[in-house]
Amino acid sequence: MCDLMPASQPAEKIGKMKKLRRTLSESFRSIAFKKEDSGFDEICVTKMSTRSCQGTDSVIKPLDTIPEDKKVRVQRTQSGFDPFEKPTSQVKRVHSENNACINAKSSSASKESPKLRRHSSPSSPTSPKFGKADSYEKLEKLGEGSYATVYKGKSKVNGKLVALKVIRLQEEEGTPFTAIREASLLKGLKHSNIVLLHDIIHTKETLTLVFEYVHTDLCQYMDKHPGGLHPDNVKLFLFQLLRGLSYIHQRYILHRDLKPQNLLISDTGELKLADFGLARAKSVPSHTYSNEVVTLWYRPPDVLLGSTDYSTCLDMWGVGCIFIEMIQGVAAFPGMKDIQDQLERIFLVLGTPSEDTWPGVNSLPHFKPDRFTVYSAKKLRQAWNKLGYVDHAEELASRFLMCFPKNRLSAQAALNHEYFSNLPPRLWELQDMSSIFTVPNVKLQTESGDSIQVCTRKNSHGKASSGSKH
Questions:
Q1: How far apart are CA 58 and CA 32, in angstroms?
Q2: For range 114-141, the mean pLDDT
Q3: Which of 4, 74, 131, 292 has the greatest number of C-beta atoms within 10 Å?
Q4: What is the mean pLDDT of the chain?
Q5: 1 with 410: CB under 8 angstroms?
């Protein structure tokens, strides 16, 4: 059974959320470097940097954990562009620990000889640093949406490939709440099946999230292998998806937008959850249909009918749809019109719900019994025949695709389903940051049974990339 989680905010908290959004937006603006006559004092604002201040924990905090006395006020000035990426605002620092950190660094810098400062790369103003826009080289544009552009990039600090999501900020709106949410969530998630957030760069005009570079996504991977994936590969991808979801669900985090486009696939076959709440900065999808229509395909019936009582069950419906799509080679419920059409496709297979099969369905805002044809439930293999070719696949899929949300299988319980019984036991003993491919004999397969290397791939953000391994 799915774990229950509250997800909607009471109406009286809306004003507070808006106020806290402005506060956290201002906190992003404190990511800057102050130019002094005696050198450059570093303001410690994020653990994403390789340089940290002892005793200071000034990373971006979740919206509901910022105390009133810790808010940062920003006073706009008329100063011009700073070549060291300082936003055109004067940050008034009110944290005593930040002041102590800055003073300590300033005092330390004043005791160093100019020669030592010139050759000390972490403090040299001319050396690449984390947290600065000029620390990354843009290699090519991968996709562009209404609010963001995604680039393939390279770090000048360590030479690694990265994905740069450059979010354009508007003066009157500040930092988009969805960008704040993604950054605040991902900074605390460390798991091999969750995309890694390397760095955050904030200027007056943009907010850039620097992610690990992953070659493709599950949607494009399936496009290259039409007709359904190798059954062993489906099992490994699903295991990794459930592993990542179990990790975030145990931390009371919902993904809310599971679909193949948001599941990245590395060149070794590692699956990674991506796009945590960055709904306003989606990359250009690889198909011609709109992003809204695509999302409908993986949206559970309770949400389609207007429910806002979200829980981890919301994500588990998406898992079921993705599971079937990997096996069958086609989307489980490819609605082509609207919410009504989407629901009809679901009910055609699973049966039209009633109070007997779904307690409380009549109270949902958009459920009108006279609007839907009455269908009886079918066996899943009648709709997707390939489920019948794989042991326990149909039974597992049916546990995900339950119209009544509370009956859906949780991610943790699914990991212990018989469907995975032939996998090596060591997979259940791995540490969070350990890949499943560190276990001997665990590897992706081709249709002939040979191991494969994922080479030529479209990038996960929407454009073809080099076929060489990086």
A1: 13
A2: 62
A3: 131
A4: 73
A5: yes
The residue that leads in pLDDT, 70 or 206, is: 206
Task: Kindly report the backbone phi and psi dihedral angles of residue 18, in degrees, each rounded to the nearest multiple of 5, phi listed first.
Answer: -60, -40
Contact 60, 24 (CB under 8 A): yes
Residue 75 located in a structural domain: yes
On whether the CB atoms of residues 91 and 44 are closer than 8 A, the answer is no
Say how far apart CA 23 and CA 21 lie, in whole Å: 5
Q: Which of 192, 212, 232 is the last residue of a domain?
A: 212
Residue 455 lies in a domain: no
Q: Are residues 196 and 245 in the same domain?
A: no
Statement: residue 117 has pLDDT above 90: no
Task: Show the tokens assigned to 421.
Answer: 């019984």
Residues 220 and 207 in one domain: no
Active site residues: 257
Instruction: Give mean pLDDT, residues 224-245.
Output: 96
The secondary structure element, H or E, covering residue 22 is helix 14-29
> Exposed (0-12), middle (13-18) or buried (19+): which is 413, by Cβ within 10 Å?
middle
Q: Give the residue among 53, 140, 164 at the shortest CA–CA distance from 100.
A: 53
CA 304 to chain centre: 22
DSSP string, 311-336: -THHHHHHHHHHHHHHHHSS-SS--S
Q: In terms of domains, do 232 and 341 share one?
A: yes
Judge if 289 and 358 occupy the same domain.
Answer: yes
* Residue 83, token pair as written in the block: 């070549």
User: Does one domain contain both 261 and 198?
Assistant: no
Band of residue 282 on the pLDDT scale cut at 50, 70, 90: very low
Q: Tell whether the model's pLDDT for residue 275 goes beyond 60.
A: yes
Question: Tokens in use for 463?
Answer: 């454009």
Is the pLDDT score of 447 beyond 60? Answer: no
Residue type at 314? L
Q: Which residues contact 301 (CB under 8 A, 6 or more apart)?
A: 317, 343, 346, 347, 353, 403
Q: 85-99, 400-414, 452-466: which has the highest mean pLDDT?
A: 400-414
Residue 428 Cα distances to 415, 416, 421, angstroms: 9, 9, 11
Percent residues over pLDDT 70 in the chain: 62
Q: State the CATH number of the domain containing residue 150.
A: 3.30.200.20
- Name the domain count of the chain: 3
- In which region does residue 21 sit, left (phi positive, over 0), alpha (psi from -120 to 50) or beta (all else)? alpha
Q: What integer is the mean pLDDT of 296-301? A: 94
Within this chain, do residues 276 and 355 fall inside the same structural domain, yes or no? yes
